[in-house]
Design goal:
The chain is mainly α. The protein has nine helices and no strands. α3 runs antiparallel to α5.
Length: about 230
Amino acid sequence: MHWLLPAVAAAASAAFAVAVLRQYAARRRPYQLAWGIALSMFAVASVALTAGVAAGWSPFSFKVYYLFGAVLNVPWLALGTVELLARPALRRAYVAGLAAFTVVSVVLVAMARVTPADLAVRLLPEGKEFLPVAVRVLAVVGNVVGTVIVVGGAVASGLAMRSRRDLRPRFEGNLLIALGVLLAASGGVFAFLASSDKLALGLALGASVMYLGFRRASAPVRPAVSSGP
């Protein structure tokens, strides 16, 4: 039954991704597109995790899981925060950097030498045991930078809220997104213990909390009402 929670995480992430992308189709907000792509990555990684623990890992399923669940997901979540809060010049710089990071990550993960023997040891293999250093560095850099941006966005929203009560939904939404990222990241700790159920639970809870954050942050911003004469 190790596949059950990963399957739940995959279904939840996919449903949330569809909902956010439908919001993007209706409103055309770039941050909604970024969040929809990130949630889709959650879903793909969870599907790969489900297949791996249910039927055994292949090099392809492990690379898909690692690329979308450990390397690219958080930086794309951070893109949503950047699109929502940052100035145009910073947004353009981050998009350019993320595009380069994504291309390099896809190429290096695809070229990494992973054999069936590498994956036969544990229910949830540890990438640090056989993946190249460059791939693992990308995972660390992407997650650290992305988490700092998401959490920093929540803090920035809080500071803005002191004088802009109309931005309260964005503050609350980004706070939930930051919490969801931390929940999903905490599940990765259990990957080192080959505890796929707890990893999948972290992914499912993280995706759920982030989706609530997306909904809150996407609420229409209403102009602040002046109390003066």
